[in-house]
Amino acid sequence: MTDKPANGLNTGRTAAFFDLDKTIIAKSSTLAFSKPFFAQGLINRRSVLKSSYAQFLFLLSGADHDQMERMREHLTAMCAGWDVEQVKAVVAETLHDIVDPLVFAEAADLIADHKLRGHDVIVVSASGEEIVAPIARALGATHSVATSMREEDGHYTGEVDFYCYGPGKVEAMEKLAAEYGYDLAASYAYSDSVTDLPMLEAVGHPTAVNPDRALRKEAAVNGWPILTFSNPVSLRARLSAQSTTTVATTAAVGIAALVAGAMTFGLLRRKR
To answer: Coiled-coil stretches, from where to where (predicted)?
Structure first.
C-alpha cells in the first residue's frame, strides 16, 4: 500500500528520505571511523583528537552551515592521497563494530514501517559514499546518496565531485524521483538539522527528528511533526531477534498445519 496526495490521485511511487547522522544513527558516521582509520595509519593522533572534539560539538549542538563547510574542508584535505580500496576495506571490516550499536531503535522501526507500506527507503547523507552505502545496505534501504570524492589512479585527490548537502540533497532527490518515478508530494523526509531544510521542504511529508534549535523552530512554524529518537540498539541483535521470531512463526504455522491435517484425517477415517 502507498500513500496518496491530498487530491486523491497517486501520480507515482512513494519514497521515504532519511538523513543519516543523528537521524538514523546517534553520531557522525564519518567521525565515528576516526579510530579504525588511525589504526590503519590513514590519520595521525592529532586528527583523531580533532575528530573527537568535532564529534562532541556535533552531538552538543548539531552543525550549522559554517560548521559543515569547515568539516568538509577538514575531511577532504585529510583524505587527499588515501588509497580508495584501503578505505573501503577498513569500513567493511569495522562497519558492524562501529555503527551497529549506534542505530536508533525508533529509526529502525520507522524504516521497517515504510517498507511494509510499500515505500522505497533512501538514505541521503553528506558523509562519503564509501561509508554511507554500506550502512544503508545494512539497514535494508533501497538506495543511498552521499558525497562523492574525486579519484585518480585509485587515490582520492582531495576534491569533491558531488557534495550531498543542502540544495545538493534536493538535486539528488529530484534525480532519483525522475529515474524511479517517485512522487515527491506524496513522499516523506526525516532530518535533525536546519541545514536539511531544503530536503524537508521538497516533500509532502517532512518530519524533524531530534531537531536542533533552528529546525525545531521551523517545524513549529510549519506545523511539521517532531520525533525524538533516543534508544540506540544493536542492529545485529535486532536482526537476529527478527530472524528468531520468523523461525518461531514458521514453526508454529507448520505445527498448526500438521495438527489440522491430522484432525482432518481422523474425521475422514471416522466417516468411513
So the answer is: none
Q: CA 78, CA 42: separation in Å to the nearest integer? A: 9
106 vs 248: which has the higher pLDDT: 106
Does residue 112 carry a pLDDT above 70? Answer: yes
What's the pLDDT band for 241 if we cut at 50, 70, 90?
very low
pLDDT tens track for 52-71: 544 444 444 455 556 556 66
Q: What is the DSSP string of 89-136?
A: HHHHHHHHHHHGGGBBHHHHHHHHHHHHTT-EEEEEEEEEHHHHHHHH
25/21 Cα distance (integer angstroms): 5
CA–CA gap between residue 25 and residue 232 (Å, rounded): 7
Residue 103 has pLDDT above 50, yes or no: yes
Q: How many CB atoms lie within 10 A of CB 200?
A: 26
Active site residues: 19, 21
Is residue 80 predicted with pLDDT exceeding 90? no
Enumerate the β-bridge partners of residue 208: 191, 226
In this structure, which CATH number among 3.40.50.300, 1.20.1260.10, 3.40.50.1000, 3.90.1150.10 belongs to the domain 13-231?
3.40.50.1000
pLDDT of residue 107: 96
Three-state DSSP class for residue 164: coil
CB 186 within 8 A of CB 199: no
